[in-house]
Amino acid sequence: MPSSSRSAKDFFRPLAVGAPTPPTEIPARPSRAIHFFDPSNAKMAAKIPQMVGSVDVLLGNLEDAVKADNKEAAREGLVKIAQETDFGPTQLWTRINALDSPWVLDDLTTLVPAIGHKLDVIMVPKVQGAEDIHYVDRLLAQLEAKAGLEKPILVHAILETARGVANVEEICGASPRMQGLSLGPADLAADRRMKTTRVGGGHPGYLVRQDPDGSGEEAINGARTTYQQDLWHYTIARMVDACAMHGIYPYYGPFGDIADVVACEDQFRNAFLLGCVGTWSLHPKQIAIANRVFSPSVEDVTHARRVVAAMGDGTGAVMLDGKMEDDASLKQCLVMVELAEELAAIDPDLKKQYDAITLPGEDA
Ligand SMILES: CC(=O)SCCNC(=O)CCNC(=O)[C@H](O)C(C)(C)COP(=O)(O)OP(=O)(O)OC[C@H]1O[C@@H](n2cnc3c(N)ncnc32)[C@H](O)[C@@H]1OP(=O)(O)O
Ligand SMILES: O=CC(=O)O
Ligand SMILES: [Mg+2]
Questions:
Q1: Are 236 and 340 in the same domain?
Q2: Which residues of the sequence carry a binding annotation for substrate (predicted)?
Q3: Which string of DSSP letters, residue by residue, matches 151-203?
Q4: Does the structure's ipTM exceed the value 0.90?
Q5: 271 with 311, same domain?
Q6: What are the pLDDT digits (tens) for 43-77?
């Protein structure tokens, strides 16, 4: 039973007469990169139609990073772009302003009637608890009913306050519209009073140091290897569990050091390995990084397919390359194979690479 004040029998009922029926399952649509753009920035906005098809999600950002004086222009700009663009296979998302801001009500009451039929997901920032999702859920149902929408708009929460992290499970289970969660490391760091000044990524001061080679002062002050740690491990791990428990999807968030494409790739990969399905892209050059990292490698898909083939009916244990494989490793391999199939369906380059895989005993 979802963690909600609604009873199980009411959970999937529309919250307004005439609103579309909420989904009982959230589709696993590829969303490796959620690419942010400011619809009030003419140069950026002009690039959006050409980006369709090259990125899984285009997100018109209305919140932080849009100047207060441009909030209305951003909202109107998004309406125009959405109305004039055929998004084909690319999803259209928006990030609305915070629920306590002076702009959010107009965001929702403008966007849903104007472009609700094109909006796949609304990202809600600074979500503190289930009550925030309940508010958006009801308002969306009312607006969808009024606009005559047939498909419910999904909701994505950014986890970027200490209270939000403490309430992560109830947020994920607050509505059948919940599509997923993103980490908001910049706001979260501020809210937690962390002593960082960056937008995501690691910090050279957050480390562990190799033990001294002996007990004297010389050993203590001598050369000792240090290992930088991931500041976001705890929060991402909590997000992944909460999302998996509720059948929704976790994402890393922003990586603000646009020039450092290497550390960006590392941060994205940590999130991918822990269970995230995608990340944000703030600059066009981060899209290729996200697409690469959040697509299983040909080597991993090859191995996964070999395990699937070796495991026959999926039970028991077999040896492959000197390693034991059984029902549980098979399940991990199926995650990889299914993801590869989903991505191949929308990415012709990946499809070519995955289709070229041949297993021992198969014809090339
Ligand atoms: C903590 C958070 O809330 S994170 C989420 C909020 N932040 C954002 O959404 C930031 C989005 N990104 C941006 O605003 C910009 O990319 C910035 C400010 C980071 C860098 O912008 P610039 O200094 O203009 O980058 P740069 O000069 O490399 O841009 C190259 C080209 O790409 C365009 N471009 C830059 N970012 C984007 C983008 N996100 N989408 C589309 N086009 C973009 C620029 O307009 C420029 O176009 P041009 O060649 O026609 O002049
Ligand atoms: O909104 C994102 C963040 O890091 O804050
Ligand atoms: Mg934020």
A1: no
A2: 95, 160
A3: SPPEEEEEE-SHHHHHTHHHHHTS-TTEEEEEE-HHHHHHHHT-S--SSSS--
A4: yes
A5: no
A6: 999 999 999 999 999 999 999 999 999 999 999 99
Q: How far apart are CA 74 and CA 64, in angstroms?
A: 12
Q: What is the pTM of this model?
A: 0.96
Q: Are the beta carbons of 256 and 250 closer than 8 angstroms?
A: no
Cβ–ligand 1 distance for 257 under 6 Å, the answer no
Distance from Cα 182 to the centre of ligand 2, integer Å: 9
Residue 125 in contact with ligand 1 by CB distance below 6 A: no
Q: Is the CB of 22 under 6 A from ligand 2?
A: no
Question: Ligand 1: distance of its center to the CA of 229 in Å?
Answer: 29
Q: Give start and end residues of each alpha helix (H) in the chain.
A: 42-51, 71-84, 104-115, 130-147, 162-166, 168-172, 185-192, 217-221, 233-246, 261-274, 284-293, 298-310, 327-344, 348-355
The answer to whether residues 302 and 288 belong to one domain is: no
DSSP reduced 3-state for 17: coil
Let me know whether 337 and 246 are in one domain.
no
Domain count, the chain: 2
Q: Which of 141, 137, 164 is nearest to 151 (CA)?
A: 141
Cβ proximity of 294 and 277 under 8 Å = yes
Which one of 258, 293, 328 terminates a domain? 293
Domain containing 321 equals 298-355
What residue has token string 């509505």? 175
